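Subject: Sanity check before I submit

Could someone independently write out the structure tokens for this chain? I want to compare against mine line by line before I put it in a report. The sequence has 256 residues.
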Amino acid sequence: MTLLVTVKEAEEDQTGAPDMKAVIAVVGLAIEARIAGTAAMIADGDRTAFLLRDAIRQGVRGVISFGVCGGLDPKLRPGKVVIASSVFAGKGEAYPSDLLWAEELLRMIPGSGYSPIAGVASPITSFEQRRDFHATTGAVAADMESQIVARIAAEFRIPFAACRVVLNPAHRILPRAALINIGPAGKPGLRKIGGSVLKDPRQLPSLSRPAVDAVIAVLALRSAKQRLGTHLGFPHLRSRRPLNCLIPSAPAAYPM
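---
Independent answer below. Compare away.
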């Protein structure tokens, strides 16, 4: 089930007026939701788009894809923060991120990169697939939530951004146990992972490096969140959305 975690039901902007869930972060894991802290929606298939639309209709003014990602560009190492210039969401479908928000994220997170990323339906597992995907799309990293964020934000004409930290680099070949689907509420299925290792203990040595990468990525994600603050760097708090932003429009995608 998709989980909506709300730490503070209302925040105050500089006018003193309550700012109800100004920004919502869409994540894939429970730990990412805890790090995001404000309002975080853990993705869960088709329900994610439904609940995200509902949240926007209730007053959310910006949406950010937040969490870890897989590297596609061989130069990216674990812990690298990537701010999306655009999100590739499928063949012939890409969405530019909000420029002001991206600029603010880059300013607030020193050393972060600014490049296209991709939202994909399933992990890209082999080095050859990652290399070819990077060459074809220009995306330097991929995750499984950014395409949802980009499409829905374009539909409602509200700003979106993506702040992702590289977990596994492009050259890392993950064992089967590391590719088991995330369980309910964004939590790893530890029993299934353990069962996979028991069936094939040869995976165990190859799981140690991804575990180290995960620690590096989570620490980098926590550091980024601390720098971004409650509203995740959202630069549009003073503005008020026009009424027509609640009327879905044709996606503002551009051809690839």
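---
OP: Matches mine. For the report I'm noting this point. DSSP finds seven helices and eleven strands in the chain.
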